[in-house]
Amino acid sequence: MSTVTAAPRGVPQSPLEESSRRTRWIVAILLVLAMLWTLVPLIWMLMSSFKNSTDVTAATPVFLFQPVLDNYRNLFTGANNLWPYIWHSVLAAGISAILAVSLGALAGYGLARTAMHGKRHLSFWIISTRMAPIAAIVLPLFLIFRGLGLIDSIPGLVLAYLTFNLPFAIWLMSAFFAEVPPSLEESALVAGCTRWQAFWIVILPLTKSGLVTTFILCLVFAWNDYAFAVVFSGPNSQTLPIAASQLVTQTGVDWGQLAAIGTIVVVPMMLAGLAVRKWLVTGLTLGAVTGE
What is the tens place of the pLDDT at every residue in 97-131? Predict the structure, then answer.
């Protein structure tokens, strides 16, 4: 195999080397721009959450300031107690993500291993329900939940989140199971395992990256949701995005507290993504690309 070596100093580079070098520079510049586009708003929100009311609303951006904790302190004291909103978000997002992954793994396995006519059309129909606009299903769900007494309840929010998370989980998990050779479970069946034991002991551990990826993506959607929460929640089930919207009033916007609550919403999901980044990257580059 021939290798391309760098030309000696003073010797003109070949067109191939020059093109490769130019491509690397373009890719590096695009990556830097993408990083700035992503990080600058987050850094500015974090900085604003530690500013006092004068600095955060100054006409000229203030970069050097004395950090204060007033914005965070005000969120957890008096009438602005944020703990119930955090608890509701943890329950609704966590339970819905767990149910979506559990049910999605079972359905995805069946979809991946079942040979039937129109399988590709069924897979597309499942993911197409995830593509539907939220506005199209809010009213039917509201009428159903009102009849069942699920308005202003955590179970109601969990079911609402499942309407979007479950189709996505089924489609994504079926792609991961399709990557696992059927011969592995056939060997387990020959060794005396039942179909459930082959799935639980052999197949499921091999799709760990898929389970983690699906769980994190479903968790992020439910954690950040505002449209479902504003319709189906109430005083007993309001989540963090609802608490953030309540800081925007007719008398003005408390930008310092809004930045603080935005930080509280963003940081847990960022930490969760960083904690499982190995499985997340593997999942996004494997199963999501080969999905049927």
Answer: 999 999 999 999 988 888 778 777 888 888 888 78
For the chain, the first-to-last Cα distance in angstroms comes to: 36
Q: How far is CA 263 from the centre of its chain?
A: 16
Strands (E), the chain: 248-249, 252-253
Report the distance separating Cα 257 and Cα 49, nearest Å.
7
pTM over 0.85: no
User: Is the CA virtual torsion 276, 281, 282, 283 positive or negative?
Assistant: positive
What are the tens digits of pLDDT across the range 73-89? Answer: 888 886 678 899 999 99
What the block records as the tokens of 39 is 């990080």
On whether the CB atoms of residues 279 and 209 are closer than 8 A, the answer is yes
Write out 105-149 in H/E/C secondary structure. Answer: HHHHHHHHHCCCCCHHHHHHHHHHHHHCCHHHHHHHHHHHHHHHC
* Alpha carbons within 13 A on the beta-carbon side of 77: 7
pLDDT tens profile 165-182: 999 899 888 888 888 888
CA distance 213 to 244: 27
Task: List Cβ neighbours of 197 (8 Å cut-off, separation of 6 or more).
Answer: 188
The DSSP output letter for 232 is H
